[in-house]
Design a protein that fits this description.
By secondary structure, this protein is mostly beta strands. The protein has two helices and twelve strands; from the N terminus they run αβββββαβββββββ. β1 and β2 form a beta hairpin.
């Protein structure tokens, strides 16, 4: 009986309990199977920006959690086609978002700029008739309309409802859901 309750056995039992509690408490609200694109898997958000009328596409890569903010130069009065790509290391995770389009929605917030957004996702409509926003047209009225303009791009997972319209400085709003990924890009002329 003394061997069952000795100090080594008690320490081992406590270690197992601590590990179990830690693993359980670090999970998201739903199970891993419910989330088709766990936020822990996204490492980069890349915006491919092409000025309309040109064939010059420039890539702006935001590394999640790595620091550093890319700057996208935009010209007032110009239009740009912008494609958002999501990566997990070297793997493209954008296809997972497209195949689960009813579970995703992008919000484009330009708090210190005047930019109009049109979603161009083509026939890849969500069941509610809305577009995720993986491909957009930006009509730049004024790229710099305040000090230190920026874009805050947010990928929402499992929103209850979405709206593509502009509310305040953001193109797109949601009810419910949680953030799968978020990136910030500086804007300049």
């Amino acid at each position: 009986m003394n061997k069952l309750f000795n100090t080594k056995n008690i320490i081992k039992l406590l270690a197992v309990l601590l590990i179990t509690i830690t693993v359980i408490s670090c999970q998201r609200d739903g199970s891993a199977e419910e989330d088709d694109l766990p936020q822990e898997e996204l490492t980069n958000i890349v915006l491919l920006v092409t000025e309309d009328g040109t064939s010059n596409t420039i890539s702006y890569d935001y590394s999640i959690g790595a620091g550093g903010v890319p700057t996208i130069p935009l010209k007032d009065g110009k239009s740009y086609t912008v494609e958002a790509k999501f990566r997990n290391g070297n793997e493209d995770a954008t296809g997972e978002i497209i195949s689960a389009k009813d579970e995703h929605f992008l919000i484009f917030d330009f708090p210190k700029s005047n930019i109009n957004i049109t979603r161009l996702d083509g026939n890849d409509l969500r069941n509610d008739g809305k577009r995720v926003g993986l491909r957009t047209k930006w009509d730049v009225v004024k790229a710099v309309d305040g000090t230190s303009p920026f874009l805050k791009l947010t990928l929402i997972h499992s929103p209850q409802s979405v709206n593509e319209a502009k509310v305040g400085s953001a193109w797109g709003t949601v009810v419910g859901g949680e953030t799968d990924a978020e990136a910030t890009y500086n804007l300049s002329n």
